[in-house]
Amino acid sequence: MRTLVLNAGFEPLAVVTFRRALLLVFTGKATVLAADERDPVIGPNHIMPRPTVILLTRYVRIPYVKNVQVSRRGVLRRDSHRCAYCGRNASTIDHIVPRSLGGEDSWENLVAACHGCNSRKADRTLAQLGWKLRFAPSKPRGPQWFITELDRPAEAWSPFLRSAA
Ligand SMILES: [Zn+2]
After folding, report:
1. pLDDT tens figures, 64-88
2. Residues with beta carbon < 5 A to ion ligand 1?
3. How far is the CA of 139 from the centre of ligand 1 (A)?
């Protein structure tokens, strides 16, 4: 079980081991927001719930945000696992401009799609089908997109991720 670190502004910043999380808490650099009571940390002088989410006491500035690499999981996460064509639950990704027509693997050309829409669309364009996208796909911004653990977040983190998604 790892610990989600939130910046002082409550946005996700990193995922660390619980040992690192405890160190941040013991040195006063972070406070515990959520902890797992069922799985306590037993130290020489203390027993405490294992932190699942901590909040930094001081805001950390991210000096340089490079481009986030496009990935299948990243696209599903950006689109909240909802099909870009019909809004149903999506577990596949689709090239808006098909690869066979030169469509690229990019944040702008990839969207989450349900199995039904994906197989109906096949190698055709939206114009050919008369379909519309429910949103304009774009490159995600912000440090939370560099945290690959958030592609498959722990359940304990979910109340703290809603605003970031
Ligand atoms: Zn669909």
Report:
1. 667 788 999 999 999 999 999 999 9
2. 83, 85-86, 88, 114, 117
3. 21
Residue indicated by tokens 């991210």? 62
42 CA distance to ligand 1 centroid (A)?
48
Domain identity same for 54 and 85 = no
38 and 77 both lie in a single domain: no
Render pLDDT for 11-32 as a digit per residue (tens, 0 to 9). 899 999 999 999 999 999 999 9
Give the structural domain span for 57: 2-63+142-160
49 CA from centroid of ligand 1 (Å): 42
Q: How many CA atoms lie within 13 A of 128 on its CB side?
A: 10
In a shared domain, residues 57 and 7? yes
pTM (2 d.p.)? 0.74
CB-based contact 137:110 (threshold 8 Å): yes
pLDDT at residue 55 above 60?
yes
Chain length of the chain = 165
Structural domains in the chain (count):
2
Cβ distance 121 to 110 under 8 Å? no
The CATH number covering residue 103 comes to 1.10.30.50
**In this structure, are residues 67 and 115 in contact, taking their beta carbons and an 8 Å threshold?**
no
Ligand 1: centre distance to CA 95 (Å): 13
